[in-house]
Amino acid sequence: MTEWRLAVRRRGTVVPVSATDATVTTSGDGPGFWLDVTAGAAELELDHLVIRLPAAVRPGDLAWLSGYQTWSESQVRPLAARRRPLHPVARLFKLDRYGDAAIARDQRDPRAECSHEVLAVQNGTGAQLWGSRLGFDAYTVIEAGTDELRIVVDVAGWRLEPGRTTRVAWIEHHHGEHAPELLRAWAATVATARPADAITGWTSWYRYYGDIDARRLTGEIDVLAASGVRFDVFQIDDGWQARVGDWTGFAPGFPDGVAPLAASARRAGMRPGLWLAPFVTARNSDLAEAHPDWLLRDDRGHRVPAGWNPGWKGTFYALDLQHPEVVDHLAGVVRTARDVWGFGFFKLDFLYAAALDGRPGATRAQRMRRAMTLLREWCGEAAVLGCGVPLVSAAGLVEYCRVGADVAARWEDPVQRALRYPERISTVSSMRSSVARAWTDGVWFGNDPDVVILRTDDTRLSEAERRALFTVNTTLGSLVFVSDDVAGYDDETMALLAGWDPPGAATVRQHSRAGGVDHLVTDRGSLGLALGDVTGRVVG
């Protein structure tokens, strides 16, 4: 029998919803579930909603588990009885800020197996899917138990007008033969992707990280233009700006700004791209000093940390996107980069910061969707790559979206893995997420599985690992970038890169798992992947 518990805030106190507050209507005890709330004579503010739904799920069922945002680890693996939450030490470095720790914190079971927005499982009798239709308004966490699902809907802050009926939960349940097909069909009911071609490109990040200047990047443009390889985009990543948050000032290595580089890239036949993290600011930025009121504050008036980054002088903070001057400022930054500097492609990063705001008036999901809608408006016809964002909030608003963690020049980060940090920098985590989220490509946006790393120097990746990364990214990605010194490639590597022109991501039709090997059947053939914790390879 389906059970639910809805609580509201009344004069600052959380209480169960009453007949005076509202009339609640549900769908009954069918396989899916919806819940409508008709507010009474006064405006109603929701606090939390928890649903218990009978479901034929058990530990050992093959499950598609999707993480909270871009970098959050997503996997296709057998359901476990329990999971291990983020290690307490991770909070010292504010690693909890990147993930879902603040999402319905008091209602969640931190040790439960969970998936965000959608859960699909497959066993010998076929496949099933449970998915929310309301991800733009309220984030949904699906916790899997034995023969039941505990569904937590993050309705905190949602205000309902007097007398108006609003659907605040809508969980669909579908049966089928193969989970990947159910996932794509469900996703298509949520959003429609913007038109986006499959593209290749080069980005500065994994080549130089933040140590970039105009001379180096000009040299890279020349190398790429002379390579004879298709590069659609030349993207300048973090390091060009004076400081994070000070986007109209430039680092010392860019005395003439970045407009000349955009022009050079266009002359070389590439679309110029620029990295921005518009919703955050470094603690030492001129913006933070000149406009302290632009920083997001909690209910005690403290600045809201968005994370910690040693390259940005430690803690960085979220901006208050409810402040009209912040919105006007950011609109000016993006439009300047687009119309004055000449960039036609934007990688917009650390976007989750827009959902750190839990103040009354709107849910986190509503605030995040509004922020993404603003970015879409500001970028105009420029292509957008969303990164560090809850995927459902970006659906249909960006041409491309990262679907996994940052890769690295090694297979795994053992320290971050020991901390059980879902958003860790990890090549294997990135690849697993690309496989687990293959269903979003072409339905919500074009998938970005992060870059391929083919260099043989300055790397701990083995040849088999590099080949596995290349295979996953070029098979399942609609955006495939490289971030190496292309001039340093040997003939064999250059030949591999020269053949990378992507037809777009393959569609996964079937997915099974046996002996630690993922077997994928796509519309372009079969693929076997062994993506272990220690190493990985393409099986066949």
Secondary-structure blueprint of this entry?
Blueprint: E1 3-10, E2 13-16, E3 22-26, E4 33-39, E5 44-54, E6 62-65, E7 75-78, E8 113-116, E9 118-123, E10 126-132, E11 139-144, E12 148-154, E13 159-160, E14 165-176, H1 179-190, E15 199-203, H2 205-208, H3 214-226, E16 233-236, E17 241-243, E18 246-250, H4 259-267, E19 271-276, E20 280-282, H5 286-290, E21 305-309, E22 314-318, H6 324-340, E23 345-348, H7 364-379, E24 383-386, H8 391-394, E25 400-402, H9 414-418, H10 427-436, E26 446-448, H11 463-476, E27 479-482, H12 491-498, E28 508-514, E29 517-522, E30 525-531, E31 536-538
Parallel strand pairs: 15-16, 15-27, 16-19, 19-23, 23-24, 24-25, 25-26
Antiparallel strand pairs: 1-2, 1-5, 3-4, 4-14, 5-12, 5-13, 6-7, 6-9, 8-11, 9-10, 10-14, 11-12, 17-18, 20-22, 21-22, 28-29, 29-30, 30-31
Helix pairs in contact: 6-7, 10-11
Would you write up a description of this structure?
It comes from Actinoplanes subglobosus. It is an enzyme of class 3 (hydrolase). Keywords: Glycosidase, Hydrolase. The protein is an alpha+beta fold and 540 residues long. The chain has twelve helices and 31 strands. The strands form six sheets. Strands 26-25-24-23-19-16-15-27 form an eight-stranded parallel beta sheet. Strands 1, 2, 5, 8, 11, 12 and 13 form a seven-stranded antiparallel beta sheet that branches. The chain has a seven-stranded antiparallel beta sheet with strand order 3-4-14-10-9-6-7. Strand 9 and strand 10 (126-132) form a beta hairpin. Helix 6 (324-340) packs parallel to helix 7. It is globular, with a radius of gyration of 23 Å.
